[in-house]
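ARCHIVE CARD
CATEGORY: sequence design from structure
SOURCE FIELD: tokenized fold
FIELD CONTENT:
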């Protein structure tokens, strides 16, 4: 992992948790403690909202507050799962962002990686999301107006569920909806295990001008409990470079699909 990638990870974890420790980071990133200390020193000098403390670093706005991670136990595991593939996809998705757009992001760990890159982008945007950690990362960029969907937050969840039947996304002209899914197949399209997510993602697909799926290659040819959209309802599918050739060609016959290492299409 490059130094810049470690620094991005440390900063995002500090924002997410409020405080992170040298020993923990060294173990997770598989580098030495002196390397982590050096990374933290650089970050504390670079960002005013990070505060170097003995044994770690804190995010100032979270000091003396309950850690956000306590509300979203298990989210770190999702972030680590196939993270290299998700980062590839996020880097590709940036190519499809246009100045002044209003975009909608789901609460997936792939969109969290995407949000981490958006937080450094010098473009004026409005971003709507139902992801708690996604919103926390995005609000660091003064060029981005962040709107979080209100609703119910369940135990062990990073997602805000709009259970009041007042879908805020219907109040905006959504240029692009970026989403992930638990599985995608030719016959059944994009699917999820959680029925509440299925309902909301379905509405978001219908209410957006363009829909862009961010799906890592481990999720292809898999079906979850319920489908929220079919293949022909998605404008573009972005995946990583590790997808096998046969699977890519199969999907390429049914949907506009691009790998992270492919050139940007002339139209989007």
């Amino acid at each position: 992992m490059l130094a810049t990638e470690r620094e991005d990870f440390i900063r995002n974890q500090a924002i997410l948790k409020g405080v992170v420790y040298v020993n923990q980071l060294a173990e997770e990133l598989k580098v030495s403690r002196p390397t982590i200390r050096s990374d933290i020193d650089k970050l504390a000098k670079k960002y005013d909202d990070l505060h170097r403390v003995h044994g770690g670093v804190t995010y100032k706005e979270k000091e003396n507050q309950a850690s956000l991670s306590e509300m979203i136990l298990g989210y770190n595991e999702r972030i680590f799962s196939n993270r290299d593939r998700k980062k590839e996809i996020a880097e590709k998705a940036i190519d499809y962002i246009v100045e002044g757009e209003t975009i909608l992001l789901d609460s997936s760990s792939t969109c969290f990686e995407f949000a981490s890159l958006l937080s450094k982008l010098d473009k004026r945007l409005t971003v709507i999301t139902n992801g708690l950690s996604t919103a926390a990362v995005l609000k660091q960029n003064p060029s981005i107006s962040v709107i979080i969907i209100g609703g119910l937050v369940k135990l062990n969840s990073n997602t805000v569920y709009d259970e009041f039947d007042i879908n805020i996304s219907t109040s905006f002209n959504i240029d692009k909806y970026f989403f992930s899914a638990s599985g995608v197949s030719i016959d059944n399209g994009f699917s999820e295990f959680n029925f509440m997510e299925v309902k909301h993602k379905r509405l978001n697909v219908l209410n957006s001008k363009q829909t862009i799926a961010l799906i890592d290659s481990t999720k292809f040819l898999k079906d979850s409990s319920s489908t929220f959209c079919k293949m022909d309802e998605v404008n573009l599918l972005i995946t990583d470079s590790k997808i096998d050739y046969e699977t890519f060609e199969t999907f390429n016959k049914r949907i506009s699909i691009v790998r992270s290492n492919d050139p940007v299409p002339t139209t989007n």
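CARD ANNOTATION: Residues 88 and 256 are 18 Å apart (CA to CA). Residues 62-77 have pLDDT under 50 and may be disordered.
SHELF: design records, drawer C
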